[in-house]
């Protein structure tokens, strides 16, 4: 046990009392549970228990070492001067004080054990004033009634009903797939690892087009209906569409008395075209697309 305790504190067998106290404070500070997330709090509390147990073992070893030193045969020891005897008494008094303080600390703040599986009470260090408010679990029991257990889990579900939260998300995912269709949903999952919203979501594309070899043009439709253009990475213009809508997998944007449209929801855009009917622009062939963007289909504006 002594070797294990020395290893925890990183000390050798000839450590001094000052070194022990300095290491003890440093380790407790290192494993302080203040501002620690729930998952790590139990680990830190267990580490504090190990540190306190090792401290008691090393402190006891220190006292025994001092006693052995004081009991050496008189013929083998030098006469003790009054000043040295007084200093030794002071050291003993300090050691005794630390022992009393440590024992009082352990009695006042006994280490807390991790809760058994299914218990949702959160472990909170005695020094912390913050306590999460427990709420009634959102899960349901076999009879269809709501679970009466209290929990502090962020999800709102106790340990036994966390699976119900996952099942609910899967059901929402299925409903969204039925509403949007497989193609749109696949695109959502591929790009965003599943996004659910109460409003219908559609996938648009941020595309790059080459117009008359003048440079790479990049156009993007924002959520607020603004259609912006960049040339070689530099902002050119931005206009708010008067209205935009979707028909037969084609996005139509209307502003300034002309219509621009773009194909979307395809596996690749290299065969599609982006065109506008302004007199001076003509048709622009899509050369590449960089990334998909997400926008909400809110209907006609």
Strand content: 15-25%
* Widest beta sheet: strand line-up: 6-5-4-3-11-10-9-8-7
Average pLDDT, rounded to a whole number, is 60
Return the structural class: alpha+beta
Helical amount: 25-40%
Count all strands and give the number.
11
Largest sheet: 9 strands, antiparallel
Give me the number of helical elements: 6
Second CATH tier, the architecture of the domain at 2-108 = Orthogonal Bundle
CATH third-level topology of the domain at 2-108: Helix Hairpins
* CATH top-level class of the domain at 2-108: Mainly Alpha
Shape: elongated
Q: How many angstroms does the end-to-end distance come to?
A: 76 Å
Which ranges are low-confidence, i.e. pLDDT below 50, for 5 or more consecutive residues? Answer: 118-130, 187-217, 239-243, 248-301
What's the alpha carbon Rg, rounded to whole Å? 36 Å
Q: Please write the string of helix (H) and strand (E) elements.
A: HHHHEEHHEEEEEEEEE
Task: List descriptors.
23% strand; alpha+beta; elongated; 37% helix; single chain; nine-stranded antiparallel sheet; 6 helices; 301 residues; Helix Hairpins; disordered C terminus
Brief rundown of the structure:
With 301 residues, this protein is an alpha+beta fold. The protein is built from 6 helices and 11 strands.
What can you see in these coordinates?
Strand 7 and strand 8 form a beta hairpin. Among the domains are: 2-108, Helix Hairpins (Orthogonal Bundle), CATH 1.10.287; 201-296, no CATH class. The strands form two sheets. It has a nine-stranded antiparallel beta sheet with strand order 6-5-4-3-11-10-9-8-7. Helix 3 packs antiparallel against helix 4. The chain is elongated, with a radius of gyration of 36 Å. The longest helix has 33 residues, at 38-70. With 301 residues, the chain is of the alpha+beta class. Mean pLDDT is 60; it is low at 118-130, 187-217, 239-243 and 248-301. Helices cover 37% and strands 23% of the residues.
């Amino acid at each position: 046990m002594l070797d294990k305790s020395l290893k925890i504190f990183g000390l050798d067998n000839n450590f001094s009392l000052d070194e022990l106290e300095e290491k003890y404070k440093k380790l407790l500070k290192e494993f302080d549970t203040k501002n620690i997330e729930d998952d790590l709090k139990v680990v830190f509390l267990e580490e504090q228990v190990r540190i306190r147990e090792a401290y008691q073992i090393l402190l006891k070893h220190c006292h025994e070492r001092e006693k052995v030193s004081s009991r050496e045969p008189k013929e083998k020891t030098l006469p003790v001067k009054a000043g040295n005897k007084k200093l030794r008494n002071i050291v003993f008094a300090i050691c005794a004080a630390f022992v009393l303080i440590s024992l009082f600390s352990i009695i006042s703040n006994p280490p807390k054990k991790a809760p058994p599986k299914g218990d949702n009470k959160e472990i909170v260090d005695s020094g912390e004033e913050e306590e999460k408010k427990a709420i009634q679990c959102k899960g349901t029991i076999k009879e269809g009634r709501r679970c009466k257990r209290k929990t502090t889990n962020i999800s709102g579900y106790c340990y036994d009903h966390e699976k119900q939260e996952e099942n609910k998300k899967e059901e929402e995912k299925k409903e969204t797939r039925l509403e949007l269709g497989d193609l749109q949903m696949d695109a959502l999952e591929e790009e965003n690892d599943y996004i659910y919203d109460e409003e219908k979501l559609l996938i648009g594309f941020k595309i790059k087009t080459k117009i008359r070899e003048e440079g790479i043009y990049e156009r993007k439709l924002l959520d607020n209906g603004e259609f912006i253009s960049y040339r070689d990475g530099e902002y050119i213009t931005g206009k708010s569409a008067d209205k935009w809508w979707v028909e037969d997998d084609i996005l139509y944007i209307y502003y300034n008395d002309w219509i621009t449209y773009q194909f979307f929801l395809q596996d690749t855009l290299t065969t599609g075209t982006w065109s506008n009917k302004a007199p001076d622009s003509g048709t622009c062939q899509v050369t590449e697309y960089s990334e998909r963007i997400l926008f909400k289909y809110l209907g006609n504006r």
